[in-house]
Amino acid sequence: MKTFQPDPQSWQPIQALLASGLPQAMLAVGESGSLLRLHLDALQAATLCFKPTDEGFACEQCRSCKLLAEGSHPDLWVAAPEPGKQIAIDTLRQAMEWIQYTPQVSNSRWLRIDNAEAMTVAAANAILKTLEEPPTRAHVVLHSEQASRLLPTIRSRLQRIPLPEMQMVQSIHWLQQQGVDAENSGTLLRQLGNRPLRALELWEAGWLEQRQQWMRSLLDLSGQGVVATLKLAEQWSKSSDLFLIREMVLNVLADFMRLRQGLLDRIADLDYLEELRLKAPDISAEALQSNLDGWLQLPLTLSQNSNGMMVMEKLLLDWLKLWPRRKTHGIQN
Ligand SMILES: [Zn+2]
């Protein structure tokens, strides 16, 4: 990935903050997988840098900048949960101890806690004291998707940083700079929301081709029978990408909803618009709602039911009920 340079104009509030003295306990709010992460990286680099530019960017030449580029800066600690897990107290206890020491290379130590809402209550309580009285040469930044999910005692000790917000066009532009073509950039971001980092990651993993297969299987189901449905349920229930399948199905269901309401400008699956348009009119509104509920609640259902295949069978059999007046046997033209 090329080094990310924020837009100088939108960086001005940060530049002013750097000049007047950055707060020690900070909050950055934004979706994970959005360009917020790269903006945070830029702020972190500028703070640790020996000679930041007048515009508030890291010099990319000094020892600190080189260590950051190598991923071995001794004054940086990033704590993040493993996917789907919480941040445990032990992880943060170590970080709280680490941050008390004098910086080794730069002027300050920088601790970042990603997905901070994933801290257990015990973990959150373990950092309270440090947030209240940070060591003199230290910065702590909590990154959160939803600040409202942080404990109020944590939130009240943090100052929110005015990081630039990226518009969709800027995200598309950034994706293209990384080598994704214009059409795919648009498709990815419509599917995933304004999260270009996530889009790039999935694009590199071949997700677009995978999605075509999943879409085909899903959309063809309505013309097929129960046997084909159960077969797909078996396949999907074993997939390690089940959460991505869920996102895709939710997008399709939401698109059906939008088509019925005439909200054409918000369609996520633009590349399947014609097909979805043909299918939308016959859909039962009641079944559409219950399908949406079922897929939304999937993580909860799976946590309560160890038989993933049975859960998926129910979801896909419910999918067939979207078209109550259609025959579900044999192939339809
Ligand atoms: Zn530097």
UniProtKB/TrEMBL annotation:
Reaction catalysed by this enzyme: DNA(n) + a 2'-deoxyribonucleoside 5'-triphosphate = DNA(n+1) + diphosphate
Keyword flag Transferase: yes
Signal peptide span: none
GO cellular component terms listed in the entry, alphabetical order: DNA polymerase III complex
A Pfam family annotated for this UniProt entry: DNApol3-delta_C
Keyword entries, A-Z: DNA replication, DNA-directed DNA polymerase, Nucleotidyltransferase, Transferase
Superkingdom, natural source: Bacteria
A GO MF label: DNA-directed DNA polymerase activity
GO annotation, biological process: DNA-templated DNA replication
SUPFAM superfamilies: P-loop containing nucleoside triphosphate hydrolases (SSF52540)
Protein name: DNA polymerase III subunit delta'
UniProt source species: Acidithiobacillus thiooxidans ATCC 19377
